[in-house]
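Reading group handout, session on sequence-to-structure problems. Before we discuss, look at one worked example. The prompt was deliberately terse, the way you'd type it at a terminal:

> structure Homeodomain-like protein

The input record follows.
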Amino acid sequence: MPNRRIPPEVKRCAINLYDRGVLDLSEILDRVGFSERTFYRVLACWRETGNVIPHKYGLTTGRPRAMLYDDIDYLLCLVRHKPDYFLDELLFLLEENRFISVHYSTIMRELSRCTISLKKLRRIAKERCPFKRAAYVAAIGQYTPDQLGFIAYLVLFKVNEFIWK
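And the output record:
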């Protein structure tokens, strides 16, 4: 029989028929269309967890990752802040600030898992213009922090007002 997904409703129905003694096991298997081994596997899962579908999220396979989610977030913040960091600089910052020692390949693998490639990093680094950044800092520098907070509040208020209309 080919590999296929059996709907959970069919599995529950087969278990109910078996538990209540309505039909023999051979008749149940004939009607639902899966093997005896599959039936007993579903029955064991039902009795163990109360569900006919085994949950995969609790099982870990392979070697545990060297970097935790917070470490990866820190790495992404570093890359977004300055995308032209070299891998050895990222490695040094992770050792100094997060107290983890990983290999270059681990950093590159985690960045690729987060869909950040060297091509994207190079493009972001090329798009950064120091003159535009300096012009922005000069333009925004004329306001006090209170004024900037008020402007942000007005923008949020207008957005909410627009949404609720």
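Points for discussion. First: The mean pLDDT is 79. Second: The chain has three domains: 8-49, 69-127, 130-163.
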